[in-house]
Prior knowledge:
By secondary structure, this protein is mainly alpha-helical. It has helices spanning 9-29, 36-55, 57-70, 87-104, 115-132, 137-161, 165-191, 211-235, 239-259, 262-279, 284-300, 302-309, 321-326, 335-353, 364-367, 393-426, 430-449, 459-484; strands spanning 72-74, 83-85. The two termini are 29 Å apart. Mean pLDDT is 83; it is low at 1-7.
Amino acid sequence: MRKLALIGWLDLLFGVVFLAAWIGWFYYMYQENPSGLIKIAMLFGAVLTGYLLLFRKELLYTICLVSIPLAQPLDPLNSGNILDFPSEFILFLLGPLLLLSVIRDKKLGHVWFHPMTILLLCDIAWITIASITSTLPEASVKRLIMRILFMTLFYMGMIRMAGSSRLVGKYFGLYIIGMLAVIVMVLQKHATYDFVPQVSFIIPQPFYPDHTVYGAALAFVIPIAWYFRKMARLHSPYMLVRWMATLAMAVLIIALILSYSRAAILSLLLTLLLFGLIRLRIRFWQILVILITLGGITYVKWVDIYNEVRQNESVSNSHNVSEHFSSVTNIRSDASNLERINRWTCAWRMFKEKPLTGWGPGTYQFQYGQFQTLSDMTYISTRYGNRGNAHSEYLTYLSETGWPGFLLFLVICGYAMAMGLRNIYRAATPEQRWLALALTGALTTFMIHGLFNAFIDQDKMAVLVFGALGGLTAMDLKNARTHEA
């Protein structure tokens, strides 16, 4: 796949026609007697997809990035296997071709020896082992295949694009374009309910499963939107471009606030604190010391902290917005928080039963029901595996892949942070420093949000996480060569 070039008018026409064909597919699945025009759109879309796959893979990749936020769950074969259409459909088409291309590309030889690449490959290797011993092999193999596709298309795909910061920015810019379209539709729908918190949980559907993954994606792209705004103010001679960059960032922030996702907003606020520490040139080992110290204080003072938060009776489904956000520490009567604790407890019990290889990737939602106790369950609890996951990236790894997988994930997060700080401090130009800061900040929101929710196996978040890891890895390789010279 060639490096992506700026989209020309013909490419734009191809993209519009492709998306129109996708809409035809979507309406076909929900109409008993689709019109002839919809059938023609479907046929034309299939032919166009084949053409792009054979001759214009880079354009198909571009369309994929734009379509991921807009993708909607669909069962095209009525088989019970839900796909985010058209993005996951494109991923399955492009994945094998790009994987072969990556393996054959001699220019990427040095990438395979970078520590981040090695860590991600070790992660895939352990997921493979955990899939072999899985309690539900079919679910685990699906998760394994998706992880390989994510690393190939987003991590390696980003590195192949990363010859310049412009192309790195374009990768995330395409996602943001698609997301802005979603935001307009979500806010329009939310406005009919006067933006009350009670409906925020389902308002992002069908584009995002709920407000938590929607909020996590918003928090992730806001630091990158900040980078675009800085670049526009520095380099663009057009006032309109500067205002559009500022407006886009403002819309993303407003959408995040109105998502009422407490964990996402908290993750962005803590990331802003990290930005302040970076201005003081904090080092990675100092961050580790701070985290270990905070962990130690929490452990020693746990009884006092627990008794204090038990006094909070604010609930997350209140009409009062301030009460909704203050409910983040209510572990007494808030059903959302109590259910999250229930899921965490189940994950820990699952880990204790299978500590080495876990229950298998993708199995938590199907297995945790048997580990619930009546005292932990809430009115929103279920035993049928149809309401989410462990509500934690870290505990999901622990329960599904055992302690080796959990430690690997911790090391990946830690090394990503160390690599981000290294690229910030080594940057030769302000533009490179801003980009490294934006990618590091974006990944920080994911790591913090990962304490409360688990989204890395959804394409709407994986494209961001693996893309940011790929962008930082490419910058790290470039900076290393510069320092060696």
